[in-house]
Specification:
This protein is an alpha+beta fold. The protein has a domain of 69 residues: OB fold (Dihydrolipoamide Acetyltransferase, E2P), CATH 2.40.50. It has 2 helices and 5 strands; from the N terminus they run ααβββββ. Strands 1-2-3-5-4 form a 5-stranded mixed barrel. It is rod-shaped, with a radius of gyration of 30 Å. About 9% of the residues have low confidence.
Length: 107
Amino acid sequence: MIRVLAVLVAILLTASLSVTGAIAQMPKTEPAQPKSMEQKSDKMGQKVEGTIKTVRGNMVTLEDGTQLSIPSSVKVSKAQLKPGAQISAEYEEKAGQKVATSVQIKG
């Protein structure tokens, strides 16, 4: 009886060690994590809101220092782009520059 028990313990110990070794050799995978809002916004463009500090040509600087390039393809009244105006804009980073894809004047 003791021999049977010893053999059974040896078999269980061997099986558990082989499974542990197999698991240790498996490549680690990152658990699925929900994408943050910023990651989602990278595909769609990022958003910014603020008050215009200065306007020079197609460059708008907000009071927080954010600089946006507004291409002619973006439909916005240039007359409304003036210091003190509040805007909401979507933009994409291109060559280190924030290029507006849409601009809306608030208020």
